[in-house]
Amino acid sequence: MTPYLSWLSSGDNAWQMTAATLVGLMSIPALAVLYGGIVQRKWAVNTMMMVFAAFALTLIVWVLWAFKMGFGSPWISTFVGKPATVVGAGGEQAQASIPLLKGLMPNFRFPEGSLVYFQFVFAAITPILFIGSVIGRIKFKVWLIFVPLWITFAYAVNAFMLWGGGFWAAKGALDFSGGYVIHLAAGVSGFVAAAVIGPRLKRDREKAVPNNLLFIAVGAGLLWMGWNGFNGGDPYFAGADATAAVINTNLATAVAMMTWIVMDMGFGKDRKPTFLGGLNGMICGLVGITPAAGYVNGAGAIVIGLVTSAAVWVLFAYLPRKVWPFNKVDDALGVVYTHGFAGLLGGLLVGLLADPKMIVYLGLGKNPDVTTAGLFYGHPRQLLIQAGAALTVIVWDALVTFLILKGIGLFMKLRIPDAELAAGDVAVHGEVAYPDEEPDEGDFGEVPGEPQPQEHHHHHHLVGVDSSD
After folding, report:
1. Are 138 and 414 a contacting pair, CB within 8 Å?
2. For residue 158, how far is the Cα from the chain centroid?
3. Does residue 256 contact residue 288 with C-beta atoms inside 8 Å?
4. For residue 148, is the peptide bond before it cis, meaning its omega torsion is within 30 degrees of 0?
5. Is the pLDDT assigned to residue 438 strictly greater than 80?
6. 95-118, pLDDT tens digit by residue?
7. Alpha helix (H) ranges present in 94-155?
8. What is the spatial distance between Cα 126 and Cα 30, in angstroms, rounded to a whole number?
9. Where exactly are the structural domains of the chain?
10. Do residues 223 and 379 lie in contact, with contact meaning Cβ atoms separated by under 8 Å?
């Protein structure tokens, strides 16, 4: 008896499942506690619920139809794959394959189930990232309908075109691990969703104080370390390119975080280093290196960290104050900056910095090694290809997000009513993140399901909303 099929490499499979688990941790719990700690205390439960629900919903639609739309056989020209399930024995245990990439990369040495799960955690984190744009006003029920539709019509198309061997992949567009498919997509979609749903209550925009910096630190640390799986898992083999991707990811992130902190100290409003500022820089580095991680060398990674962070710092300081539509849309956590712009910049920078000495896959016999090259290494067209792919993702995801929300809006209101917006979690979920240690007698004597009276006095900071809202 043998535990391994002839094509299976235990090392590759072990790394693929480990990398996928690391990426899963970036969503639950990392983004749940990161975003849950950044929002006002009254929205912590709602944020966590949205993260966990999006994770669960995405897996269900992923195995039932969406995985094959992103990584299956072509269906609608070179734009999307044919929907099919992967819940049978073959979908879990047969040798993994992406039909259009056959012969363009080595055959996979792990089962289809490892590929399905690895790609699922990428799909799931994308809508989870842009929860940050719409927090504090979107109805939970709307979110539950929106996520499966967005995965189907936006994410699966992005994935097929860039990773499944579709239109932009065939043109040679580079997106190592999701600078476009995930981060640019999340930044654009979140921004459009925030515009369609409208802003948070005025009072909430003015009093947007994080409720727990320590939770933010836990989430941020898991996000950074989880990114080792995010970029390190994307060569699909536990080889030298995976190593390079992990080192480049951490290097770009370290440089980007310190760039933001130094800029805050030198040019920021209060000239003080802040943890939230460092966090923004960290995310800019993680996102900026994502499209490039296994294609650039260490010097390229340093440049990407520096440029992405500095550029987003300037945009962050300038656009929301002066420039339409950024001065009009309430993107609560600035997802369009740290993910949208950082993903776009990273994707363009790989068009400059991709180093042909970085070997993605070794050639065999007469076949050359698989490498990439950017403008600085004699391939100027790469920048144009990168720009074209970015434009496609921006236009398509903006359109799909707009249409899905407008469609849902025909049947139900997209926004939580103002009275519930004032109260937050207790009105929407009947739970609070930080209940008082010593409840008053009688506070918990209500009949379940009865309409609750106005908030008790110990939640007084949640009510008495200014009537001008």
Report:
1. yes
2. 13
3. yes
4. no
5. no
6. 999 999 999 999 999 999 999 999
7. 112-129, 131-134, 140-150
8. 14
9. 10-409, 421-462
10. no
Q: From 192, 227, 189, 178, select the one nearest 347 (Cα to Cα).
A: 178
- At residue 437, what is the residue type? E
Is the peptide bond preceding residue 325 cis, with omega within 30 degrees of 0?
A: yes
Give the length of the chain. Answer: 469
pTM of the complete model beyond 0.85:
yes
Nearest alpha-carbon partner for 146 in 126, 117, 118: 126
Residue 284 is inside which H or E element, if any?
A: helix 275-289
**424: Cα within 13 Å, side-chain hemisphere:** 28
The string of pLDDT tens digits covering residues 237-269 is 999 999 999 999 999 999 999 999 999 999 999
Place of tokens 């269906």: 75
Closest CA to 50 of 132, 117, 156, 118: 132
355: left (phi > 0), else alpha (psi -120 to 50), else beta?
Answer: beta
CATH topology of domain 10-409: Ammonium transporter fold (1.10.3430)
Contact 102, 121 (CB under 8 A): no
Strand ranges for 160-230 from DSSP E: none
Query: Which residues does 333 contact at the CB level (< 8 Å), separation at least 6?
Result: 35, 38, 39, 132, 133, 135
